[in-house]
Give the backbone structure.
Amino acid sequence: MLFFGHIGITAGVAQALNEGGRGRLKIDLRAAMLFSLLPDLLDKPVGLLYPNVFGNHTRLWAHSLLVAVGILILLVALRARGR
């Protein structure tokens, strides 16, 4: 699910929000798709490098809701500052 699952679902949701958002918020699809891959880009190498520590799992802390909410808060704060 690394590539097509994360990117496809994120692109579909972002496009639906862009079309149904009445013009208030436009989501950059390129940034949304890049950020959708970040959990796997962080967790896969760590899980593969230390299999005994994490029990041969590659879904670690970056897949948690806490990190997703943290990234969302960061993006909203940057958007509010006009970046």
Q: What stands out?
A: The radius of gyration is 15 Å. The CA atoms of residues 29 and 63 lie 21 Å apart. The chain has a mean pLDDT of 77.
